[in-house]
């Protein structure tokens, strides 16, 4: 697709645009959805498109071109130009990165075996059967295979290519109406794919969750399963973008250099993580992706930035462009040194939450939110687990981070419908978490 | 649309027992303004074809944005192959309900066609919000405003004779406003005003007035807000709060695909079971309707994305569960006809069971009558945080703008009253409903990949008796 990119760049320069970024995609995606132990639909998407960003005297615009004929490309550029001429400039625009750059191959991000995989249904059956073996009655979920080529050309000398693959499964297992469990597995190379573990975990939690009692309310020590904590960190990932902070969507506003979490907490964005579902070689302006420490031992170190926002704040890009809106690639909560058993035995009377969904904020800048545990929820008393139901986590995101008392030593990479930015996290013990429930 | 007919023919030739092809084209612009700075222009121009087939009782879907016979033919081949393979992992074949199909064409007219206006002229709407908010004198240090317009063109063809062509323009303005006064901060996030139609609808709606009302209410909340009463009180909910409540706790749990488990892994299941048709879920005064045909509504359509004619759906009538939302697959499972609730966000998405414009039907009380005999209560005007469990039974709504009601009068603002309640308790507690209906836009999320479709939510004011309210 570089020929298309070159043509767009050439024409854009001829028309007088300043900064130009052309990001071409060639994508093959396959999906198998299943429910009630059977496949409900199988899908295939093939897509070629170009995301285009242009700048004209500090006026910026973007579009996606899906019809890549020369005629349509020229028409699109002329439309952008005529639309931009009357616009007011974006005064805080400070340009894109100066290339070229050197890129390293990132291990475990490409696997021909995934491209050549003819029929992924056997993996679906493996996951369903594992869940059924654990005692589930109904199993639902989704499997994806991905193959994506990225072609980046910019007016600042970048020409970069990245090709990636992926395969992932999300499995939810049910016994009755109130007993369910969830497991996921997301990897970039076929030999690491483990649909059985996802099905088995879903089935096992569903089995443990049988005959739940109404849960209590108050403040409790809570063990968050990686699946549950990944949800909170995925919502938080947006708040680490400098753009979100300026727009009033982040509890991290005005907190640079301040303590925002327990000293045990180090949170990073790792764009170049081997086998990470969000991993890419470069960001949208061609800067090689890297590891950026957002929170270090509880102290907030940096927002995620692109070149323009970095210049605005007198610092360096963190390689997280999004040209308008920087964003995270793979959020990582560094693990601790507790075994899972030690974590559970640490809790005299608390709650184990295996999954949450529907996280919503009352106030983004304050960080006040609630989220609903779903699937198995358990009262933990002296190492014993007793299933409960119908509770809600109602608290504040910064307070949750400050309340982290222990971190498991094993990390899990989570990506599914409710965790759109991939998150790697261990089991997390948080003290004094607000729990509420409906009383009518 | 020869390519669509070609796709359907090819699918049948390859062994499909049913085939449909849908062309969608979306054109539009969006603009953002952050703290007074224009954030740039986004131009949308997207089109493609989605093909869905049934083969041996399995379902396959493929889409392409390369509009050539070769590419469409390849997509058909993939859809058929996927459907065949899927049929082997099924307990029973998928069947569709029998429906009457039409050859029709319809469109929503624009008095002020947004295509005739430059981005700069559209940006004036956002500038007007900025100016009006500033003119209030309230300190609003973070202001994030967006404008977007899109013209949705669709053509749908299936192997049973349907041909539906439509053209629906949509315009929308959203804002996030953070008020800091007296060292305290309050926020009105993701507030949206949105319609199907031309620019004249946004101008008539005057989103700047909504923004001004919000920041003034938040300022007043900061200076005069007190703790809400706790424990059992009466609660009057506004059309906006009634809207989110009917959407979350009536619309979603009545989706037949969810009831029968198809969404179990993502959006969840439902506390409602097929056998609950005819059961009481609310008081006599509660009637909830979902109606895609409301003119200029954000969730407007006249034919769904399976070619079935749309009509109002009475989900609850006088407190009784009367109808589920269905598409052809789930209507067949329930032994019914589809009520036209199949929607797809775009050409590259499958049609699934969705809401359109869901509302609490009006009753016979004026607002004054609703509050006149309340000794102690709360009037919840708008909300921020809300959520509900994945069976749609345990929910929570927190008031943004809310007031104390004392001896039949609206008094001072109250901070964050929390309604955390079960679906049955909520609708059983309603003893009176107001006369006037209002609607509020939203984006309804469901499906995987997620399909955020435009919906309206609303209704009349409603009075709930003896409700356990909480404080933060």
UniProtKB/TrEMBL annotation, chain A:
GO terms for molecular function: metallopeptidase activity. The keyword Protease applies. Pfam families: PmbA_TldD_2nd (PF19290), PmbA_TldD_3rd (PF19289). Residues 115-208 form the Metalloprotease TldD/E central domain. The keyword Hydrolase applies. GO terms for biological process: proteolysis. Keywords: Hydrolase, Protease. This is Zinc-dependent protease.
UniProtKB/TrEMBL annotation, chain B:
The keyword Hydrolase applies. Residues 231-448 form the Metalloprotease TldD/E C-terminal domain. It comes from Thermococcus guaymasensis DSM 11113. GO terms for molecular function: metallopeptidase activity. GO terms for cellular component: cytosol. This is Peptidase U62 modulator of DNA gyrase. GO terms for biological process: proteolysis. Keywords: Hydrolase, Metalloprotease, Protease. Residues 19-83 form the Metalloprotease TldD/E N-terminal domain. Belongs to the peptidase U62 family. InterPro entries: Metalloprtase-TldD/E_C (IPR045569), Metalloprtase-TldD/E_cen_dom (IPR045570), Metalloprtase-TldD/E_N (IPR002510), Peptidase_U62_metallo (IPR051463), TldD (IPR025502), TldD/PmbA_N (IPR035068), TldD/PmbA_sf (IPR036059). Residues 113-190 form the Metalloprotease TldD/E central domain. Gene3D superfamilies: PmbA/TldD superfamily. Pfam families: PmbA_TldD_1st (PF01523), PmbA_TldD_2nd (PF19290), PmbA_TldD_3rd (PF19289).
């Amino acid at each position: 697709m570089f020929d298309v990119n070159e043509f767009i760049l050439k024409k854009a320069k001829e028309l007088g645009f300043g900064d130009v970024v052309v990001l071409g995609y060639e994508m093959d995606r396959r999906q198998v959805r299943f429910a009630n132990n059977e496949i409900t639909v199988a899908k295939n998407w093939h897509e070629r498109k170009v995301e285009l960003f242009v700048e004209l005297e500090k006026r910026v615009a973007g579009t996606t071109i899906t019809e890549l004929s020369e005629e349509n490309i020229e028409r699109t550029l002329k439309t952008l130009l005529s639309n931009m001429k009357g616009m007011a400039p974006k005064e805080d625009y400070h340009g894109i990165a100066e290339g070229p750059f050197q890129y390293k191959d990132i291990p475990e991000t490409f696997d021909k075996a995934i491209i050549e995989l003819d029929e992924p249904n056997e993996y679906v059956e493996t996951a369903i059967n594992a869940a059924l073996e654990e005692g589930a009655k109904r199993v639902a979920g989704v499997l994806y295979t991905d193959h994506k080529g990225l072609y980046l050309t910019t007016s600042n000398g970048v020409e970069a290519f990245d090709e990636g693959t992926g395969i992932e499964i999300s499995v939810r297992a049910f016994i009755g109406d109130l007993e369910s469990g969830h497991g996921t597995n997301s990897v970039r190379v076929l030999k690491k794919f483990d649909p059985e573990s996802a099905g088995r975990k879903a089935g096992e939690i569903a089995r443990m969750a049988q005959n739940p009692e109404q849960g209590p309310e108050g403040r409790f020590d809570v063990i968050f399963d990686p699946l549950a904590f990944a949800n909170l960190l995925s919502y938080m990932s947006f708040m680490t973008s400098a753009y979100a902070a300026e727009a009033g969507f982040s509890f991290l506003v005005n907190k640079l250099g301040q303590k925002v979490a327990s000293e045990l907490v180090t949170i990073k964005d790792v764009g170049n993580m081997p086998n990470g579902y969000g991993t890419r070689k470069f960001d949208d302006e061609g800067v090689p992706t890297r590891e950026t420490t957002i929170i270090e031992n509880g102290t907030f170190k940096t927002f995620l930035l692109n070149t323009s926002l970095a210049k605005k704040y007198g610092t360096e890009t963190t390689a997280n462009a999004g040209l308008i809106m920087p964003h995270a690639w793979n959020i990582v909560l560094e693990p601790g040194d507790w075994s899972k058993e030690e974590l559970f035995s640490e809790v005299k009377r608390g709650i184990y939450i295996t999954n949450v969904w529907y996280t919503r904020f009352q106030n983004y800048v304050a960080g006040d939110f609630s989220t609903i545990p779903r699937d198995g929820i358990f009262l933990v008393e002296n190492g014993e687990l007793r299933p409960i139901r119908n509770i809600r986590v109602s608290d504040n995101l910064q307070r949750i981070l400050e309340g982290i008392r222990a971190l498991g030593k094993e990390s899990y990479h989570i990506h599914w419908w409710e965790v759109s930015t991939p998150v790697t996290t261990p089991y997390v013990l948080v003290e004094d978490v607000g729990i509420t429930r409906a009383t009518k | 649309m020869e390519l669509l007919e070609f796709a359907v023919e090819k699918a049948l030739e390859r062994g499909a027992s049913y085939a449909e092809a849908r062309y969608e084209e979306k054109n539009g612009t969006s603009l953002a303004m952050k703290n007074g700075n224009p954030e740039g222009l986004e131009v949308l121009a997207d089109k493609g074809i989605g093909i869905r087939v049934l083969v041996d009782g399995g379902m396959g879907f493929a889409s392409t944005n390369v509009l050539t016979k070769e590419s469409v033919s390849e997509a058909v081949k993939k859809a058929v192959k996927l459907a065949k393979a899927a049929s082997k992992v099924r307990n029973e074949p998928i069947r569709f309900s029998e429906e009457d199909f039409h050859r029709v064409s319809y469109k929503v007219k624009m008095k002020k066609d947004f295509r005739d206006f430059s981005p700069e002229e559209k940006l004036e709407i956002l500038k007007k919000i900025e100016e009006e908010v500033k003119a209030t004198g309230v300190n609003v240090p973070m202001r994030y405003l967006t404008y977007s317009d899109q013209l949705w063109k669709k053509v749908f063809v299936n192997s049973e004779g349907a041909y539906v062509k439509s053209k629906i323009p949509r315009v929308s303005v959203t804002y996030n406003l953070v008020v800091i006064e007296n060292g305290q901060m309050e926020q009105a996030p993701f507030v949206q005003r949105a319609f199907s139609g031309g620019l004249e609808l946004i101008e008539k709606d005057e989103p700047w007035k909504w923004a001004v009302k919000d920041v003034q209410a938040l300022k007043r909340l900061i200076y005069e807000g007190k703790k809400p009463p706790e424990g059992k009180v009466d609660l009057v909910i506004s059309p906006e709060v009634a809207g989110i409540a009917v959407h979350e706790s009536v619309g979603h749990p009545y989706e037949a695909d969810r009831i029968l488990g198809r969404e179990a892994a993502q959006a969840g299941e439902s506390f409602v079971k097929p056998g609950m048709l005819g059961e009481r879920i609310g008081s006599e005064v509660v009637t909830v309707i979902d109606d895609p045909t409301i003119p200029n509504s954000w969730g407007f359509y006249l034919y769904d994305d399976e070619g079935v004619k749309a009509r109002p759906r009475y989900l609850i009538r006088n407190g009784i569960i009367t109808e589920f939302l269905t598409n052809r697959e789930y209507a067949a499972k329930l032994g019914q006809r589809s009520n036209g609730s199949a929607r797809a966000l775009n050409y590259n998405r499958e049609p699934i069971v969705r809401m359109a414009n869901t509302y609490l039907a009006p009753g016979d009380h004026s607002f004054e009558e609703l509050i006149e005999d309340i000794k102690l209560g709360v009037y919840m005007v708008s909300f921020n945080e809300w959520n509900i469990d994945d069976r749609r039974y345990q929910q929570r709504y927190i008031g943004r703008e809310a007031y104390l009601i004392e001896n039949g009068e609206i008094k001072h603002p109250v901070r964050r009253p929390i309604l955390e309640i079960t679906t049955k308790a909520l609708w059983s507690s309603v003893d009176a409903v107001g006369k006037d209906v209002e609607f509020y836009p939203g984006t309804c999320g469901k499906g995987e990949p997620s399909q955020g479709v435009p919906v309206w939510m609303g209704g009349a004011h409603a009075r709930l008796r003896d409700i356990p309210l909480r404080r933060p």
